[in-house]
Specification:
Largest sheet: 4 strands, mixed
Bound molecules: flavin-adenine dinucleotide
CATH superfamily of the largest domain: Butyryl-CoA Dehydrogenase, subunit A, domain 3
Radius of gyration: 22 Å
Number of strands: 8
Order of helices and strands: HHHHHEEEEEEEEHHHHHH
CATH topology of the largest domain: Butyryl-CoA Dehydrogenase, subunit A, domain 3
Strand order of the largest sheet: 1-4-5-8
Number of domains: 3
Distance between the termini: 34 Å
Strand content: 5-15%
CATH class of the largest domain: Mainly Alpha
Shape: globular
Length: 395
């Protein structure tokens, strides 16, 4: 295994760095560092304009086929782009659910009409997407989905509730896991539907988070409709397609996330320096520990990406989510500990500092994309070959 970047890759890195420097100027310069953890709602219109600017300059959908607005770049080139993006402190992405989840799913599982209809609009950032999986009774146990859909006169009609739907209030479309066979249970009888959000049968209610942001939502479908053709795969194949989407959820953005963590760690270190705490034994040891763990994560991620490129699933792929989410949560706790009483106080109008936002948002990291407990079950079952989780009848 060779974890070094090749000369060509380093050349590509220089090209990305130069381009981002050039693009993040003028009206976009103010977006540096915005839209990250706990700041997801910030400057929506400006960030949308930024994404369109990136698209116009061919810097999104990098690994997609050229025919659909992509650039056919390799996984490593995509990784390099995300690394440089984080280094430049370019703003948090808005189109990532379409670009990173639905797009690759359609490329792998969609039909030609669906690819032609939806992919160019995603790559041009003309349509934003959200993910309609979780329900009040179906989170970790996703096969308990009860939102239902029925085909009537050439249209799917949906009834039911989704929850924790990130960006639903901004999205034009949602990919929904719904039960389309009335008497079915668990993984059978589910379908993967593409549903327009801006219609009378869709009611979106923001859930206000402790950060004060309303980034995710409850979504109610009350006779919401979508065309009969807006189904990916066959009726009843929804589970298979939904799992394909989840497989895209992590990957090339992992290393970029670590650079964002590096920026945050530097900020926490800066706060410790400002308070004269760098010589405090406990704080300095915790900062050093965080730094070493970050380095270990980087090498593990490079190993994981090397494994993904060759189609293998090895230990770093199984443990990565558990590792980074706990690291990030610990960093938030360290920030609060060194801020002392200042960490408990908020400015007028609930104006949180970036470290307070980091602390609050990092509590969510151990829940979404597979909670800590579920990650441990996966490690136990797939990594260690232990017996299956007895809580679930069919896991
Ligand atoms: C920031 C954020 C954004 C999100 N965005 C979206 C989105 O856009 N779209 C979407 O569909 N969903 C989204 N989610 C929802 C997310 O996928 C769920 O929160 C997650 O799947 C957990 O489900 P739950 O919240 O229902 O908790 P539950 O599944 O009810 O779990 C509750 C607790 O029980 C534990 N538990 C559950 N089952 C087991 C088990 N078998 N063994 C041991 N312990 C267990 C869990 O670990 C957890 O601690 C988001 C969540 C967050 C936090």
């Amino acid at each position: 295994m060779d974890l070094r970047f090749s000369d060509q890759e380093n050349e590509f890195r220089a090209q990305v760095r130069g381009s981002l420097e050039q693009l993040l100027t003028g009206r976009f310069a103010a977006l540096r560092g915005r839209g990250g953890a706990g700041d997801e709602d910030a400057l929506f219109d400006e960030r949308l304009a930024w994404e369109r600017h990136l698209s116009a300059n061919n810097w999104n959908c990098l690994s997609w086929p050229k025919a659909f607005g992509g650039r056919d770049l390799t996984l490593m080139q995509e990784v390099i782009f995300f690394e440089e993006y984080a280094k430049a402190r370019a703003p948090g992405r808005l189109g990532h659910i379409g670009e990173g989840l639905l797009g690759p799913t359609l490329i792998a599982c969609g039909n030609e009409e669906q690819k032609k209809r939806f992919l160019p609009k995603i790559s041009a950032v003309e349509e934003l997407w959200c993910q309609g999986y979780s329900e009040p009774g179906a989170g970790s146990d996703l096969a308990a989905v009860s939102c239902r859909a029925e085909l009537v006169n050439g249209q799917w009609r949906l009834h039911g509730q989704k929850t924790w739907t990130s960006h639903a209030q901004r999205a034009d479309w949602c990919f929904v896991l719904a039960r389309t066979e009335a008497s079915s249970t668990r993984h059978a009888g589910l379908s993967y539907l593409l549903v327009p959000m801006k219609q009378a049968g869709v009611d979106i209610r923001p859930i206000i988070q402790p950060t004060g942001e309303g980034d995710f939502n409850e979504v109610f479908f009350d006779d919401a409709r979508t065309d009969a053709t807006c189904i990916v795969g066959e009726p009843g194949e929804g589970w298979k397609i939904a799992m394909a989407t989840l497989a895209f959820e992590r990957g090339s953005s992992t290393l970029a996330q670590q650079l964002q963590f590096t920026n945050e760690l530097a900020q926490v270190r800066g706060a410790a320096a400002d308070r004269g705490l760098l010589k405090n034994n406990e704080i300095s040891m915790r900062l050093a520990q965080a730094q070493m763990e970050l380095l270990a994560m980087r090498w593990s991620s490079l190993r994981m990406l090397d494994g993904m490129a060759s189609g293998q699933l090895d230990a770093p792929a199984l443990t990565s989510k558990l590792y980074w989410s706990n690291w990030h949560r610990n960093l938030g706790e360290l920030a609060m500990d060194l801020l002392g009483c200042d960490g408990d106080l908020v400015g007028e109008g609930y104006d949180l500092s970036s470290l307070q936002r980091l602390f609050l948002f990092s509590r969510a990291d151990t829940i979404y994309a597979g909670s800590n407990e579920i990650q441990r079950n996966i490690i136990a079952e797939r990594g260690l070959g232990l017996p299956k989780d007895r809580w679930r009848d069919d896991s």
